[in-house]
Amino acid sequence: MNNDILKTLYSQQQIQKRCQQLGHTLDKVYRGKRPLVIGVLKGAVIFMTDIIRNMDTYMQMDFIDVSSYNGGTKSSGHVKLQKDIDTSVKGRNVLFIEDIIDTGRTLDFLQKLLRGRGAKSIRICTLFDKPAGRLVDVKPNWVGFKVPNEFVVGYGMDYEGYYRNLPYVGILKPKIYENK
């Protein structure tokens, strides 16, 4: 897999340091508020576990799965709910944990969905933000790193289900996904 990476953007050490910083910040923000922390599957699982291990506050966890890429490198433009959360959000402080915000469509869809269900507050923590790809006005509250408008993989992010287990984030060589 390492041979498929054009360039490493963020090392495992850089990512872990940032996760500690974000976790400590979120711990202060949510202390005493008992948030519902929702991980957006599947990409955010690794980031979410690293974040919440750095929080010393009561919280509940849940997961939601939506799809808009369908295995490709570009969003289809249509967000589809694959797996809903099991916990009620009515009157709750919700913290979405996302791996990357690109077009913004996914989180726009999810925010509207949970506002309609009566969430008290909805905030977003993303490890990676790709503002050059934004098509919908979604602003994360906390960002780990900005990434260029390239196709990135690793640390939970994938191409066709692969590369999620890389401990770093890198740019995937275009020859891997072009002409498919």
TrEMBL record:
Stretches assigned to the Phosphoribosyltransferase domain: 8-159
GO CC terms, sorted: cytosol
Superkingdom of the source species: Bacteria
Keyword presence, Transferase: yes
Keyword Transcription part of the UniProt annotation: no
Cofactor(s) demanded: Mg(2+)
Pathway: Purine metabolism; IMP biosynthesis via salvage pathway; IMP from hypoxanthine: step 1/1; Purine metabolism; GMP biosynthesis via salvage pathway; GMP from guanine: step 1/1
Main location: cytoplasm
UniProt GO molecular function: guanine phosphoribosyltransferase activity; hypoxanthine phosphoribosyltransferase activity; magnesium ion binding; nucleotide binding
GO biological process terms, semicolon-separated: GMP salvage; guanine salvage; hypoxanthine metabolic process; IMP salvage; purine ribonucleoside salvage
This protein's UniProt keywords: Cytoplasm, Glycosyltransferase, Magnesium, Metal-binding, Nucleotide-binding, Purine salvage, Transferase
Cited InterPro entries: HGPRT, Hxn_phspho_trans, PRTase-like, PRTase_dom
Family: Belongs to the purine/pyrimidine phosphoribosyltransferase family.
Entries under PANTHER family matching the protein: HYPOXANTHINE PHOSPHORIBOSYLTRANSFERASE, HYPOXANTHINE-GUANINE PHOSPHORIBOSYLTRANSFERASE
Protein name from the UniProt record: Hypoxanthine phosphoribosyltransferase
Organism expressing this protein natively: Acetilactobacillus jinshanensis
Lineage: Bacteria, Bacillati, Bacillota, Bacilli, Lactobacillales
Gene it is expressed from: hpt
